[in-house]
Design a protein that fits this description.
With 402 residues, this protein is of the alpha+beta class. The protein folds into three domains: 72 residues, no CATH class; 82 residues, Double Stranded RNA Binding Domain (2-Layer Sandwich); 150 residues, Phosphoenolpyruvate Carboxykinase, domain 3 (Alpha-Beta Complex), CATH 3.90.228. Helix content is 28%, strand content 28%.
């Protein structure tokens, strides 16, 4: 097939831009929000310009002419630029017909049996029964025997608060038919077969219930440590090493706020840490044992995903405030070949795209209006990718952020 010359007109049609996708600007770089699938895509300056031309003109000839006028590209290079951008959007599914419903917000961490009969709740005497508080939610937890309370207590002890007459949620932890059952009154129950599964199960149910009751814009998979009057987020999906890094930074003197989930407040977009137990998976036990000798003596628990985890004990009320402004965002990445490691500054658009892959919006889905708020928010935050081969390197690199 012959290549198009400077004077030839390309007759191929261009796709119509979908109504459910909006373009947002951060400098010369664009961000494309697929509001129906709740997905965010970054666009190069060239692709952003192509999208703008598609929004303004109907025919390929007009788009090609406008693109050449704005960029000075030859006809061939401008056509290639258009084709590459459109193909990348097709691959990303931006031109697909939306389904009938938005994706669910926060995934259910455990599967409740909601048809199970209501548990027999042991008598709870408010004046003598300890209560627990996580974010805005108070819990009462009843145990069928002291052994179960001893198994769960190290994971939730730091959340104890003054007894309340009317807790927001009640959990019952009991033995049942050779196994164990954790029930959340008026919600349902979850069963497990071994006592070492009980503490992670209770921890997960508390966290999920607290997130859903909180006044927050979204939940983000991120650890956090306090720095001055604010905090640094360590963002990444499950398995990114957040717990190990947060624990290592705590051993080096930073205050650990949380290791897995933070909430962004609706009003100020400040961070509200989900201050659960610091859970360390088996691969990190040798790495952290020198800093935390007690870690290897703590019980081994099994999470619902089959991963073995030990929990680091936390002091009562480990947070010094309810909210923290975000000073920096770091995306940690373990790389055995990273040498002494590296700290690379990220463009705000790139950082926001990465962060939204770790985010779940709660009461309201991500909309073009919310996107503009988040763009203004992250524009004032320094963002970095940190590659490291050892915990010592990560601590050294982290000090450079101070």
């Amino acid at each position: 097939m012959s290549q198009m010359t400077e004077n030839e007109t390309d007759k191929r049609t261009l796709p119509k831009l979908p109504d459910h996708v909006s373009l947002h600007f951060m400098g010369s770089q664009g961000l494309l929000l697929d509001a129906h699938r709740q997905l965010l895509f970054s666009a190069t300056p060239a692709a952003t310009l192509v999208w703008c031309c598609l929004a303004e003109f109907d025919s390929r000839a007009e788009v090609l002419s406008e693109l050449r006028q704005r960029t000075g590209l030859s006809a061939r290079r401008a056509a290639n630029c258009i084709d590459e951008a459109v193909q990348s959007w097709r691959t990303a599914g931006l031109f697909d017909t939306p389904g009938s419903a938005l994706p669910s917000a926060l995934p259910e961490p455990v599967e409740f049996d909601r048809d199970a009969p209501a548990p027999a709740v042991p008598t709870i005497v408010p004046s003598s029964e300890a209560a627990y508080r996580l974010l805005d939610t108070t819990f009462a937890i009843a145990f069928s025997d002291p052994t179960l309370r001893e198994a769960v207590d190290p994971v939730i002890r730091h959340l104890q608060t003054a007894p309340v007459a009317r807790p927001d949620a009640v959990l019952v932890v009991a033995r049942d038919d050779g196994g164990f059952v954790v029930s959340q009154v008026d919600v349902g129950q979850v069963r497990c077969g071994h006592i070492d599964e009980v503490a992670p199960l209770v921890h997960t149910i508390l966290a999920h219930a607290a997130v859903h009751r909180a006044d927050a814009l979204c939940a983000i998979h991120a650890g956090a440590v306090s720095v001055g009057e604010g905090c640094v987020l360590l963002a990444g999906e499950a398995g990114a090493g957040k717990s190990t890094l947060v624990s290592g930074l705590a051993a080096a003197g930073w205050r650990a706020l949380c290791d897995d989930t933070v909430l962004l407040s609706n009003d100020t977009l400040e961070v509200r840490p989900l201050c659960g137990a610091l859970g360390v998976k088996a691969g990190s036990w040798p790495i952290l044992s020198d800093a935390f000798p007690e870690l290897l003596q703590s019980p081994v628990n099994l999470r619902s995903d089959g991963r073995a985890v030990r929990y680091l004990s936390r002091n009562p009320h480990p947070l010094d405030r309810d909210r923290y402004p975000v000073h920096r965002i770091v995306f940690p990445r373990y790389d055995a070949g990273a040498g002494r490691g590296s700290l690379e500054e990220l463009a705000p658009a790139t950082a926001l795209t990465r962060l939204m892959k770790c985010a779940y919006f709660l009461e309201h889905p991500l909309s073009p209006e919310l996107m503009e708020r988040l763009i203004q928010w992250i524009a004032g935050i320094d963002c970095f990718e940190m590659r490291y081969a050892s915990l010592a390197d990560s601590v050294r690199l982290f000090r450079k952020l101070d």
